[in-house]
Amino acid sequence: MRLWFNDANESRYFLVPGLIVLVMTLIGALLTAMVMAREWERGTFESLFVTPVRSEEILLGKTIPYFLLGLIGLLLCIVSAKYLFHVPLRGTLPVLLAASMLYVLVALGIGLLISSAVKNQLIASQLSMLATFMPALMLSGFLFDLRSMPTAIRVITFALPARYYVALLQTIFLAGNVWSVIVPNMAMLAGMVALLGLGTRAVTRKQLV
Prior knowledge:
Elements: H1 11-42, H2 44-49, H3 55-84, H4 93-118, H5 121-138, H6 151-157, H7 161-175, H8 179-208
């Protein structure tokens, strides 16, 4: 019996890519939801609403800083994975960055949507944990093999962005640029980015009226 792409059965080869998913989830969703909800509580957004700026510009201004923060965290994770944990990177860095950017945008979209809907820091943090971090930990394929889960649970995982990002990271790190895996998973993340962007825009627009 032989394991593909991990002959020595090193656990860190599977765990480190999953840890990157958790770090990106915390930076993108949890941090964004808490900080944005705090601004709602302090009345910062009401001050912005009376200015001529449009809702798209407000959302863009709130997204860019956390997107850049996520990229900095990603670079630190990649350097740590390669030089600290000695996990091989058999794929190309541009593909890894593109996949990670999509997932960061998805996480940011979830955080913005939650904070715009509830406007309470405590509730936003709890909802973001339930909607992003816990599924990323338990149902993404990071800790447990999706094929061993019950069918009903496995169907639910198709709605979780972390499932696709875990598959992308494990493929890019351990197998290389396997396009039959990369393209469908990146397409799903891109679709989620579009849906979350439209949803966040709709929720924010209601508050501006």
